[in-house]
Design goal:
Elements lengths: L19 H12 L14 H9 L3 H11 L3 H11 L5 H13 L4 H10 L12 H18 L1
Helix pairs in contact: 1-3, 2-5, 6-7
């Protein structure tokens, strides 16, 4: 059985870094062989942005999660020990980058089209909200349909 990662990039844990809980979930699911098709464990988008912003080595993140199978708080404790950029200012800058990221027109149109929503400007165009729509659609297709 595989799982669509249903934690939004707009969610933060106690550290306050957006997307970090989703990154943990995706990498954890991938390490367990349970990540839904089409989702990268640690991909080029928000995953890489988060690692770079917090000063984390992506390979070390994957290795720690695969080897330790940590709970989210245990993963965040590891991040606090291994991250190189964890000041409140670093995290705030990262969060603004996550919230202000806009998908390409093609990606936006694809997500809205799959959901039967007109691309008429009535939906917030940021990637967090569009990715939520995409996850909900994929979850519906995989589990509820």
């Amino acid at each position: 059985m595989s799982y669509v990662p249903m934690i939004s990039s707009g969610v933060a844990g106690p550290l306050g870094a957006l997307h970090l809980p989703r990154l943990w979930l995706k990498v954890s699911l991938e390490a367990a062989g349970k990540l839904a098709a089409g989702y990268p464990g640690l991909g080029a988008g928000y995953d890489s942005m988060t690692c770079a912003a917090l000063g984390l080595d992506p390979e070390a993140v994957k290795s720690f999660i695969a080897g330790s199978k940590p709970t989210y708080p245990a993963f965040e404790a590891w991040v606090r020990q291994n991250g190189k950029k964890l000041t409140k200012a670093d995290i705030h800058k990262h969060n603004l980058a996550i919230l202000s990221y806009i998908h390409s027109d093609e990606t936006r149109k694809g997500i809205l089209g799959a959901n039967g929503i007109a691309d008429d400007g009535s939906v917030l165009p940021d990637a967090v909200n569009l990715n939520n729509l995409d996850d909900w659609f994929e979850f519906h297709q995989a589990v509820l349909k």
